[in-house]
Amino acid sequence: MKTIKVDLRSDTVCKPTAEMLEAMMKAEVGDDVFGDDPTIILLQDKIAEMFGMEAALFCTSGTMTNQIAIRVHCQPGDEVICDKLSHIYLYEGGGIAVNAFSSVKLIDGNKGRINAEQVKESINNKNDIHNPYSKLVSIENSMNKGGGSIYDFNEIKKIKQVCVENNLKLHLDGARLFNALTETIETPKDYGKIFDTISICLSKGLGCPVGSLLLGTKEVISKAKRFRKVMGGGWRQAGYLAAAGIYALENNIKRLKEDHKRAKAIGEILSKKKFVKEVYPIETNIVIFELPDTILALDFVAKMQEYDILCVPFGKHLVRFVTHLDFTDMHLEYFKSCMNTFDI
Ligand SMILES: Cc1ncc(COP(=O)(O)O)c(C=O)c1O
Questions:
Q1: Residue nearest to atom 13 of ligand 1 (CA)
Q2: How far is the CA of 278 from the centre of ligand 1 (A)?
Q3: Share in percent of the chain as helix, strand, coil (round to 5)
Q4: Are residues 37 and 30 in contact, defined by beta-carbon separation less than 8 angstroms?
Q5: Which end of the chain is more exposed for a tag (fewer CB within 10 A), N or C?
Q6: What is the per-residue pLDDT across 55-82, written as a single tens digit (0 to 9) for each?
């Protein structure tokens, strides 16, 4: 059989379209360290206005925006409360310790989503010298390790209430917030009212080659700019990349529904296969499924490669597929036809 390359390892793998590249080529740029790149200013103002927040900062990656937020909120000896599957804990190189000299209190949530009661129970007694100071709560929406699961906004409001009552800051890792927003009734402004800081990735479902945005108050973003510089993240004529971000915010949000539809189609195909134990509920563009104890995720991924289909092991018996802009109906048809014969 003639193979077609299908890359479902992540939504980060998609390449800019011709239209996006054209917008990048036309960008008017300046020097962002001097603060005079007009396209970056436009992008930052645009996202701040979308979320009804005071200011934004364009950064290289979601890891950088998350870590800068944590660094702004936490001092040495503080503690971050988050789910045990959080990206900030699992996949950012121990950045909470490296950048903010802070500790982590992990919660065992529901597919990566924590609730207000769990947050309340995780807050340390600040008068007990044995404890780190509870300072920040961080949630992820949609939740990558939870299979792209979406938070119930009412629960987020309850978490906020606990934060307010206990003087805690609230951060959102919204790497894929627009995927969650596509499937729910809330608006970016609803989120802007609740969170102290929000990180948004442009280089995932939105299809940009690189870039993330951190949102917060003017004061927070002014501190964030300093930490970005310390991390080596002052980036000169990055307006070419900001132009891709503006293009994505204007053109690539609505189409996320298509990625979600194709993810559901993958889930349906998989759920009928005898080598699949369980497919996580599919709410957005991420498909996670569990293999039986006799099959290793690594072996499954290697076997898929024989068909030129790429995916990632997400645990000993867990596999993840992520749909995105470059995964079209043609690729889905090819995936379907491979699955007719695939066995392990
Ligand atoms: C939920 C989540 N947060 C943050 C990040 C970090 O983004 P970046 O790869 O741009 O550092 C990722 C990356 O996949 C992610 O999935």
A1: 62
A2: 25
A3: 45, 20, 40
A4: yes
A5: N
A6: 999 999 999 999 999 999 999 999 999 9
The architecture (CATH level 2) of 6-14+255-341 comes to: Alpha-Beta Complex (3.90)
Q: Which atom of ligand 1 is nearest to the CA of 142?
A: 1
Separation of alpha carbons 135 and 168, rounded Å: 5
Q: Which atom of ligand 1 is nearest to the CA of 176?
A: 1
Place of tokens 């699992």: 90
Give the mutation target among 91, 141, 324 for probing the ligand 1 site: most ligand atoms within 8 A of CB.
91
- Write the class of the CATH domain 18-251: alpha beta
Residue 46 Cα, ligand 1 centroid: separation in angstroms? 22
pLDDT above 80 (res 136): yes
Ligand 1 atom nearest to CA at 66: 4
79-113 pLDDT per residue, tens: 999 999 999 999 999 999 999 999 999 999 999 99
Q: Where are the domains of the chain?
A: 6-14+255-341, 18-251
Give 129 Cα–ligand 1 centroid separation in angstroms: 34
Task: From residue 214, give the alpha-carbon distance in Å to each of 25, 63, 65, 164, 223.
Answer: 24, 11, 5, 21, 12
pTM of the model: 0.97
